[in-house]
Amino acid sequence: MLRIEADRARFREIVRGKIRGDLKRYLSTSELFTRRGERAVSVPIPQIELPRLRFGDNRKSGVGQGAGERGDALDPEGGESAAGAPGEAGAEHALEVEVELEELAAMLGRELELPFIQPRGQRSLLCEGGRYDHIRSRGPDSLRHWRRTFRRALERSVASGQWDPARPRIVPLREDYRFRADRPRPVPHSSAVILHMMDVSGSMGREQKEIVRIQAFWIDTWLRSQYDQIEVLYIVHDAAAKIVDRESFFHLRESGGTKISSAYELCLAQIQTRYRPEDWNIYAFHYSDGDNWSARDTERCMALLRDELLPRVNQFCYGQVKSAYGSGQFKKDLDQHLADLDRLVTVAVNDRSDIAASIRAFLGKGR
Q1: pLDDT at residue number 185
Q2: Structure pTM?
Q3: How far is CA 294 from CA 17, 291, 330, 343, in A?
Q4: What share of the chain is helix, strand, coil (3-state, %, to 5)?
Q5: How far apart are CA 14 and CA 50, in angstroms?
Q6: Where do the domains of the chain lie, and which CATH numbers do they carry?
Q7: Angle, vertex CA 115, rays to CA 98 and CA 312, nearest 5
Q8: Which residues of the chain have pLDDT under 50?
């Protein structure tokens, strides 16, 4: 058994090395989403084969076996005749390995050199917990403490003069009953909420939403590894904002205009009513192609960020996804007017190759 366990551990380490080596590729693809479970994902990696010697005829000549001649085919057994024709050779198969999300987050942290998050202030929830080591005079019969009950009955008998040493008989009354009870013990649990907001107007196409989907997966994976409790809220907006479920968030598409302030107002309302800064670490992420319907609404967004949202959140992140129809003006406005605010992070994502850098920018401050 020890030999088997050692071999299994060695194989798992080889697999983890393969995953770590290909992590940058996974950061820009959506291969993990279709294989995601509650606490783990199945990662497809190339099949691992141990090297071994093969006996064959070494008298061949040509490319790979000798000098060769100019114009010789690199694959003399394949060539054009094999193109499109059915073959009998085996193909390379992918091996799916299950990896826990916590371990995947650790790989992400090492790859992008992310610092551990320091919860802001006293942002924690107190949960009732403890053992049944307390005694009280009321409770269900199933929790009756017999020793304490008879001790109480004996004390009452002695105090009232009913105790007879010659006939030591104790009859507990209802007032003598004692019951086991749990003593409340507040236990702090760091809690956080992630508010994902996305523009779903006509200018945000399928590729832009896929980039957002990849970003959101890795952001959630990292933050879940840093907090005991995580809630995620999804907000979509065009000219108006609304709360949706996760599936709708990544697939909904509207044909209306874009009014970014509607999303910020809904986000603020949720923070004020459901996620008080005294109890929650708050992370807000907004994804858009940079279009807004008017300069006046952009001014409204700046005021909401400066006066309402940024003082309440750990960090507010704006990711601008390049689109053929988006102007990209909103990021320019944020950088121009709010660049001095430390809790605001803005990133431009031109294509999937920029996803890793955007995640590093969003999570690299350790807030």
Answers
A1: 63
A2: 0.68
A3: 50, 9, 10, 25
A4: 40, 20, 40
A5: 11
A6: 1-49+94-113 (no CATH), 134-181 (no CATH), 190-363 (3.40.50.410)
A7: 105
A8: 78-82, 89, 91-92, 121, 123-124
